[in-house]
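Complex record, two chains
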Amino acid sequence: MFYAYANRLGAYKPGLDPDAAAYIAAVETAGASVTADQKNAINTFVKTGKSDGWWSSLKRFYLPIWAQAAPNAVDLITATSGTFNGTVDHSNVGYVQGDGSTGYFNLGIGGLSAGLTSASALLFSLTHEADPDTAAAWNIGAITGAPGLVLGKGFGTNASGRVTNTGASLTGAANTETGILTMSATSDSSRSLRRRNSSGASSLDTSAGESAFTLLNNLLYALARNFGGVNQATVAKLGSYGIGTGLDDTATDAFTLALKNLWETASGLTLA
Amino acid sequence: MTIKGYATDLDTAAAISASVGLACDARGLPRFIGITPMPIYAGTHKGKMFLPLADSSLEQVLWRGIKMKDFPEFQQIIDTLGGLSARVTIQSSSLIDPNAPTEP
């Protein structure tokens, strides 16, 4: 009897976090086959985020690792979907890839509507393989000219990001475009561009920000930026992207570590 | 870089774009896939609207293991546009608006 009781206790597993469960249900309904390891990884990511405190900052989080368009479009935060347009390759486990011209993902929301402000904004993306072209290519964002909310590659192999009304950019050194990039504003006097790769987390660039402004609210795209439509689209292989309110450097690094662990476990790939 | 798709008029492009959304609606799905007509600014088809359809897109798995080419609505759309052979090949640069404002 004790053995049977102990066996039952050993078989008990705590339930999934409700947000993790909702996302898993959504991607399974959309046609993805989610393994037990992937479910555990998603659950761990969400629980870590709530324990660390960065979870509430995330407003949209996409994990396009499912090798099908419908589950790739599902947002982890809301369990709603964005829209893929043009030529996008969904055939690989772990990432999606646009054609660098017509392919992009419409998040269906602008930064302002999502709750971002000039004093509190976050963009992030996970690049498995970089766009080999030397021209600018954006992982996520929108721009109307000087006003911009973008993250990706500004030129060459240099990571770049903006939360600006004046065209101000933060730029990393050469060969910083892969791994997990984050562009964060935690006040109007603070901008931080960071990167996590296989070697760890580091700062790429910082600035003292600019005067407070009303953030643009144009629809945000991924695999490109929205500049009157799809613009400077990338052929980088992206395993995750999204937006949120600002995170300081400590919280950013905790978030990107959790994202790294989630993506590597769920995809079977290794962060560049 | 060259890209393949349909060069058509604005009304046809808008109708095709709407039909893709309706195909999602009919299945009770969110509009996870769309086709956004893009103006052609240069070349032989200047002035028309471009609907991208690369060969690779036909093989993409969209939902529950079903490829794009295997959706019944897909064939209806293709037939409306004249079949796969009616696609044209254009330079991707012809989709860039030469009068678009530049960023700082």
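Note: The two ends of chain A are 52 Å apart (CA to CA).
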